[in-house]
Structure formats: C-alpha cells, structure tokens
Design brief:
Strand content: 25-35%
Mean pLDDT: 96
Number of helices: 19
Radius of gyration: 30 Å
Number of strands: 43
Shape: globular
Low-confidence stretches: none
C-alpha cells in the first residue's frame, strides 16, 4: 500500500499556520483487489517516534479525509506524524514522515509594533544588528509581519520563497504573522535581521473608481521576534523595539495598481548585513507604535509563490515600440538583468492586448502598471518587490533590445495550490478553453479570489468567487485557500449583522456610499453558503463545514429579516441586487443589468441558501435547524412558484436565465415540468442556441440543459464559435477568460475600456459542466469527498471524444468516452482504491449491459443502465439504442438541425437572414426541405440552397 498526500489542515508540512483545530488527511493507493483492514495514526515530538504523544490505534473506520486527533498543542512546537495501514493479510505499510509546526499560539509577544518616527518619502528598510554566542543552535524561528507588504532578510539573504507577505486580509479585524525557519541563516557572532516594506493593500492606493489611500493605516509598521533555541535548552529572543533602525530605501514608490520605481543609486550597501563600522547617517531610530498585539494571529493565507516562467518574443510594432509578447495573459512580474551605464532609466509598462498591432493599455483604467529601474552602473538582477501585474505584453523603453539582450522573463505569481485535474477532447478549441479557465484561476487566486489582476480593482468579489467555486475545486486543491477567504468573510459578516459584503476583504473608505462598499445581494453574498457546501462535497471535511455553519446560518437569517421587512412573503424583494449581471438581454444595452427580474434571482438564491443550510444542519446533527430551514426552503419554493408561474405553467419571466434557474434548482412543479422544459427548449432554439446570460445564468446554463434532456443543446452552447460564446474568445486568440462576451470585437478592436478585463475567471465556470456532465464525475453529498461518487458521462458526437481525470481527496478518478466510427460508444473508467462509484451508461439496455462481466448487476433506468462498482478499471463498448451520429440532411426538422452546432453553422453561413428569424421559428417542426414551399421563407430557401446545404453536411458522415 502506498500512503501519500499527507496534509495537515489542507497543507503539506505547514509551519506557523493558525491551528484552532488539527485536521489530518491522507490517501491510500493499493492494488484494487487489496482490502484495507485498518489504519493507525502516530504523532510524536521527534522524527524517530520515541516521544509519541498520540496513537490512534489500528482502527477500521479511521477517516482519511478528516482525522482530528485529541491533542493539546504547545506553542512553537514541531509535531511529526505518520500513517500506518494494514491489509487483510496483516501486512503493514507506513507513510513517509510528515510534520506540522505551531506558531506562538497564546504566547504573549515580546516584540513590539514599531514604525518610523516620521512620514517617509520612499519605501523603508528596517533592521536590527545583533550578536549571538558561539554555541550550537538547535532551532531558530522568526515570527513576524509587516504592513503593508514586507520581505524578510537575514545576513544579506532573503528568507523564504514567498512574496507579497502578509497578503491581503481584513486588516481592521486581524493581522496575520508568518513563521520562518532561520536555523541555517544565523551564525555565531554578528547578525543582521532586515525588513523591506512597501505600501501594498494596507496603505497604498486601492479600491474602485481610482481607489483610496491609507485604507487601513497611514504608517508602515512591523513586529518581529527572532527566537533562538540552543542545544543546551536556553533561548534568546531578538525582538522588535525602539532600538531598531529605519532608512529610506531605493524603492522610490510602490503601488499595487501603479507599479514601482526603483533607483539603484539610492541603495544602501550591506544594509541587511552585520557591520561593526556602519555609521551611515541615513539610519534613524524607529519608534513604538500604539498598535496592540491582540489582533495578531498566525497565518491562514497560502503562500504566494512563483509557479511558472515565460521567455517572451520581441516585437517591433508599426509605431516603432519595443514590445515583449509572453504568449500568455498572466499575473506576476517581469525581471531582467541590467548591466547598463549609470543613470540609465529602463521602464516597462504592461497590457493585455495589442491594438492595430501597437501597444495598448487603456482598459487598465487609472492603473499605471509600470516598472521603472534607474541604474547605478553596476550589474544587477532586477525585479519588482511589492506589486504585481496582469499582462501578456510589455512595452520596453530606455534600452535598445535589438542591440542588448537583458534576459527579460515573465514570472507567474499565484497562491501555491496543487492542480488536481486534466481533460482533453477531440476539439482543440475546447482544450484551449479548459486552459484559459485554468489560467484565469491562476491569475486571480492571489491570496484572495480577485475579479481581475490588471486594472484599478483586483478585489475579492464574492459573486465571482461563488459561481466559480466548484470549477476552482476541480482545477485545484482549494480548501486552505477558501478557509482563509471564508475567515475574512466571517469577520466582515459579524460587523454587518449577518449581511455579507460584495467584496471580501471589504474596503471601508470614510464617507463612501458607493456600491462596491455595499453588502447583502443575491449570488454575491450567497458565497456564505455556496462555498462551504462545495468544499464539503468536494473534500468531505465535516469539521470545515462545522466551522462555516455560523456563517451560513447568519446569512440566511439576514435574508429572512429582509423578507420580514417586506411582508413575510417568502420572497426576497428588497435592497440593491446585481441580478443577472452583464447579461445581454437587458433593456439598456449600455447597462450591466440583465433582463431577468432581480427579485426572481434573489428569491431563487433565498431558496438555494436555505436549502444548503438545511442540508448542512442535517450533516452536523442539528435536527432543529434542519427541520426549520427545510420548511423555510419549501415555503420559499412555493412562493416563487406562486409568484412567477401561471396556473397553466407559463413562466412570467421569459429570459433564458429565468428558465435556467427553474430547471437547475428543480423549481418546476411536476404537473408543469414537460411544458416548462419545452418552453425552455424553444427559448434556447429561438436564440439560435446562443446564450444571452450573465453572471447568474451562465454558470448553470449547460447543466440545466443536460439534466433536463437537452444535452445536445448544452454541447451546442459550448461549441458555438461566434459571439456570444466561449469559443468566440478562443478563436480571437484569448489565453484567459474575458469579463464580457465581446471584450474584443470580431475586427480585433477592444469593445470598451470602462469595465473590460481580459482575465476574469467567472465565465470559466463552464468547466464545472465539462467535468460533471461531459466526463460525468460528480460528488455524492451523502458520502462527500468522493468516498462514493457518480460517473455519468453524457457523450455527444458534436464533441466526438473526451477523457480526463480528477485527483480527488480519495484518489485519482478517470473517465473517458469516444463515439467510434461505426456508431458504438466506448467508455473507460478508473475508480480509486477504497471508493465506490455508481456508473450510469446512456442508451444501454439491460440485455446488452449483461454481456459485459462487470455490468452483470446493472439495473435498468428509463434510457440507460446503472451499476455500482468497487475500486477498479472498467471498460465497455456497445451500440447505443439511439443513433448518436444521424445522417444530417434537410429532411430533418428545422428544430433538429438547430440542435447541432455544425449544422446550425452551415445554415446561418449560407442563410444569415435565418438567424433569430421569427417567421422561420414558427416552422421549427417542419422538415427544412419544405421551407422552399412555405410562405415568406421560400423567398430565400430554394432547391439550390438546400442542395448546397446537404453537400455541406458532411461533418457528420
């Protein structure tokens, strides 16, 4: 048996993280026929396990997704742990040894918050010189934080490989500190500890509509303790106090939005190294800050690290500009090697797209997004420190790159999250879409789930985070990342009496009443219930759900109070609502508001959040709440149906999103289900199978179709190549997901600069459908964490084949299908060790199923066969009961032809006047060959046109 992926609180070997609870997890991989008899967890104070402090004993039912040992954690202590598994033969296997190390816990701080005694003109350098005795060091740690952003140095070297610490969090409620292992960095004799500080989110320009200064404070500050433990058991603490020194450094300016200016002529040689003779007049004493230490907490933020690098191509534009193309829209920064004369000024500014083949950056709004380096004549490796950029292109000035190669590189900065899935299809554009969605996440998961990484915004919009949560958790292992985000959300919520801000952390500029600083809107604030439930289903950690339960409950109770204010109608009709934000069906094409009634959107989320809360209460054994909120959800559901459905089942709001919400959330009353589904179908067909949806409708669109018998339309939406569609952006060369369906117009021009990000992950939520419905990999909330899961792929000849995997917390799941040339369906699955899967195979009779050995126990469904299997690899090929590859001709009805993307493309290319043609839509059930004889449409559908179409329908044959 191979025991791997050991994590403590969702992290591999964490040091100095907040550990209010300890949750251990691991995966066991073994031959499928192996049987696990028991598992044992050992925790010790030493690597040799001579000082064992916890022994679970060999247990048959130890939870590998969330084992919580009963141990009392001591501060500043490293704990070693391992897992031992025993098979049915009594053979034991042991994991590698892992560890976790606590921070200061409840220890009082010896270090004091300190700050410069005056307002500095440049970014500061702070330091303390000290001496250590010549005796062996057992361990040494630095516990520290700096505001806004800081980097830690010891004896001239940067400590650690993370950047932008301490990250962006709700500074007005807590300050995260970090723990650094500096055992190897210290030396007997003279030492120097140094801090480089920048404005960051804390005090730099940040916000919306140009941003605000000094949102959380107007002065730099830091606190630190370097605790040295010697082999003889004694300790020494070098703590921040008013004997520390500060000086203005070479970083002239630093801004999240505007970038940095670095003047190497202002460098202080050896500033972070010990020297007896250093008497530079630039150093000043720091002073004690009046900030207390009560809000200091060990970190939750996942470290931001460099995760990838790109070497660019040099372009000389028609305007004569030197532009670097990194071939990928990314988040991070650019480095170079400068060996240029003293006084040389090298600048780069960044952008996402070229216009008329020239550099362009206007969609960044007021964000300057520049970096300037002023040389002192010495060779140097140059990088930014306390900013980041969203970019594909960079314009370089100050040096002739045709004459001198400075080795420019683009480095990707991202919260360090493990990628957990992969998928490939027969369509290269869909494969690129999958990459774009992943890169959208990579670019925006930088400590908080931001909306965009490039313009003067970069904020943790809760709506984006909510709709993308499951896609994010297929793409990457997210619980630690979301745990921190939900911690901030909870702190903000407590201050808002249960409401949830539109952005987390919530900015709070004085006197501002702008909508960015608002709270309590459907789909956005429902992050409070949706994210915890997604995490529970994906990762199976009951303790995390328990932690988030008060957040879920307070949010639903807030909606109930809003409902009460407006008459206890069990509808949510009050307050500002975003509605179906950025949908294309609004009355005003210049407004971001979609056409779906905002009260309908809000009321559906009222129902959704109440339902999720009821399910969470049931999981946690809270019977009273489970019953109460189940009843609440039923009442809201009934109220929605009463308000928005006629007595014959006609939907009062007839937008695509309205139909999506009723079908995705199972709001269609059974007597009206058939009629409402037909109306939904006709709505999609009448739009030429193109979406008109925004932030609310889009994430659910494809799955609402697939789960209601309209799978071909779902594939049709996916595979459209013209505006509006996912593949339109791909065809236009996008390498990330756009904020708008037409961020770039067909002629290559940007559609506007007001709100137009080219790296905005929200619409990448289509990936959730690709994993859940195309591959069919779905969690089972009754056995979360994929202990039991569903494999229910829904193939389509429009795509042809798909294969992929998901590295779940229970092991690697694989699913693949292909439609063979003779029309047979071929499926292959992998069910990991220790799990169970229920596989549903479409259009398979029981008689045909039982020809395959592993399907002997299958049961028949209406149009498929279902079987539950143990761990193993499974394959089956069969002829389905319906033809997945029909011969497409004009003998088919117009409705049938519109279902298939390539057929639809042929029709609209040869007869563009047919697109959204109200007359033609009246003949949906007529064979298209009859159009030549029908009123009005016969004016443009001739025998010759029909022959040309039939000749073009070769893609299916």
């Amino acid at each position: 048996m191979n025991i791997y992926n050991l994590k403590t609180n969702y992290l591999m070997n964490p040091i100095g993280f907040l550990m209010d609870t300890v949750a251990l997890s691991w995966i066991i991989e073994a031959p499928f026929e192996e049987e696990l008899q028991g598992t044992r967890v050992l925790i010790a104070l030493d690597e040799n396990f001579e000082e064992v402090i916890h022994d679970s004993g060999m247990q048959a039912d130890l939870d590998p997704l969330c084992y919580q040992p009963e141990i009392k954690l001591q501060p500043r202590t490293r704990y070693f742990w391992k897992v031992i598994a025993k098979n049915a033969d009594g053979d034991e296997s042991s994991s590698e040894i892992h560890y976790f190390e606590t921070a200061k816990e409840e220890e009082l701080w010896t270090g004091k918050w300190i700050e410069p005694a005056r307002q500095l003109q440049r970014m500061p350098l702070a330091r303390k010189l000290f001496r250590l005795p010549a005796k062996p060091i057992r361990k040494a740690r630095v516990y520290a934080t700096g505001l806004g952003i800081y980097e830690l140095y010891l004896n001239g070297e940067k400590i650690g490989d993370e950047y932008l610490a301490p990250g962006f969090h709700s500074y007005d409620f807590w300050q995260q500190y970090q723990t650094y292992d500096v055992t190897e960095a210290l030396q007997a004799g003279g030492n120097a500890i140094g801090f480089m500080l920048g404005d960051g989110w804390f005090k730099g320009r940040f916000g919306f509509d140009g941003g605000y200064e000094d949102l959380y404070g107007d002065q730099f500050r830091l606190i630190a303790e370097c605790i040295v433990t010697y082999e003889d058991g004694t300790e020494e603490i070098i703590a921040s106090d008013d004997t520390w020194e500060v000086a203005e450094g070479p970083l002239v300016s630093s801004s999240i939005y505007d970038g940095e200016v670095y003047d190497a002529n202002l460098e202080i040689d050896g500033w972070n190294k010990y020297s007896e003779s250093d008497s530079a007049v630039c150093w000043e004493r720091m002073q004690l800050s009046d900030t207390d230490t009560e809000e200091l907490q060990a970190r939750l933020s996942v470290p931001v690290k460099i995760v990838d690098a790109f070497v660019p191509e040099l372009i000389i534009t028609p305007a004569g500009e030197q532009v670097l193309d990194f071939k990928q829209n990314m988040t991070g920064w650019i480095t170079f090697s400068a060996d240029v004369p003293d006084g040389t000024v090298i600048t780069y500014e960044v952008g996402e797209v070229l216009q008329e083949d020239n550099f362009y950056r206007d969609n960044l709004r007021t964000a300057e997004a520049k970096f300037t380096y002023i040389s002192n004549g010495k060779a140097a490796e140059v990088r930014p420190y306390f900013t980041f950029y969203g970019f594909r292109y960079a314009k370089i000035t100050g040096v002739d790159l045709l004459e001198q190669d400075l080795g420019f590189k683009g480095y990707v900065l991202q919260s360090e999250l493990e990628e957990t899935s992969g998928m490939i299809t027969a369509n290269p554009d869909v494969n690129q879409l999958l990459k774009n969605a992943l890169w959208g996440q990579k670019g925006n998961f930088l400590d908080v789930p931001t909306d965009c990484p490039q313009r003067d915004e970069r904020m943790g919009w809760t709506g984006d985070a909510q709709i993308f949560a499951r896609t994010a958790s297929y793409n990457m292992y997210t619980p630690a990342f979301y745990k921190k985000f939900m911690h901030d959300l909870r702190l903000e919520q407590k201050a808002l009496n249960g409401s949830v801000p539109f952005v987390v952390p919530q900015i709070k500029p004085e006197g501002d009443a702008g909508f960015v600083t608002g709270s309590g809107a459907a789909a956005w604030s429902d992050a409070a219930t949706v994210i915890p439930w997604v995490l529970y289903e994906q990762y199976g950690d009951r303790s995390l759900l328990k932690e988030h339960y008060p957040t879920m409950k307070d949010w639903v109770d807030y909606i109930v109070r809003e409902d009460t204010k407006s008459g206890d109608k069990r509808l949510w009709t009050s307050g500002f609502q975003f509605g179906d934000w950025l949908a294309l069906d609004g009355d005003n094409p210049h407004s971001p508001m979609g056409g779906t009634d905002t009260a309908l959107v809000a009321s559906v989320y009222y129902y959704h959040s109440a339902s999720l809360l009821a399910r969470a209460a049931e999981v946690l054994g809270n019977t009273h709440d489970a019953l109460a909120y189940t009843q609440l959800a039923l009442e809201v559901k009934q109220a929605i149906q009463n308000e928005y459905l006629t007595t014959t089942g006609r939907l009062a709001v007839t937008t695509q999103t309205a139909y999506i919400l009723f079908h995705y959330f199972d709001l269609c009353p059974e007597p009206f289900k058939e009629r409402m589904t037909k109306d939904f179908y006709d709505k999609v067909i009448s739009s030429g199978v193109h979406l008109q949806t925004g932030f609310v409708g889009t994430p659910y669109f494809a799955e609402a179709l697939s789960k209601n018998g309209m799978n071909e339309l779902a594939y049709g939406l996916l595979l459209n190549e013209d505006y509006p569609s996912w593949l339109f952006a791909v065809k236009m060369g996008a390498t990330t997901i756009w904020e708008r369906w037409n961020s770039i117009l067909p002629d290559g021009k940007i559609s506007g600069t007001d709100m137009n990000s080219l790296n905005h992950y929200a619409y990448g939520s289509i990936v959730e459908w690709l994993y859940r419905c195309v591959l069919g990999i779905q969690a089972d909330s009754s056995q979360p964490g994929y202990k039991h899961f569903f494999l229910a792929p829904q193939p389509s000849a429009q795509l042809g084949k798909a294969e992929g995997y998901y590295q779940s917390v229970s092991g690697r799941i694989e699913s693949a299908w292909e439609i063979l040339a003779d029309g047979q369906l071929d499926f292959a699955f992998r069910v990991p060790f220790g799990t169970i899967a229920t596989i549903t195979l479409p259009d398979l009779t029981l008689e045909e199923a039982q020809k395959t050995e592993w399907l002997q126990s299958a049961v028949a469904l209406e149009d498929s066969a279902k079987v539950t299997v143990k761990a193993g690899e499974y394959r089956v090929t069969y002829m389905p009961t319906r033809n997945y590859c029909p011969e497409v001709t004009t003998e088919m009805s117009y409705r049938e032809l519109l279902e298939y993307t390539p057929a639809r493309k042929v029709i609209f290319e040869q007869l563009p006047m047919m697109r959204n043609n109200d007359v033609a839509l009246q003949y949906l059930d007529k064979p298209m060959e009859n159009f030549k004889d029908l009123p009005i449409v016969s004016n443009f559908v001739s025998e010759q046109v029909l022959e040309q179409m039939n000749a073009s329908f070769t893609w299916w044959r």
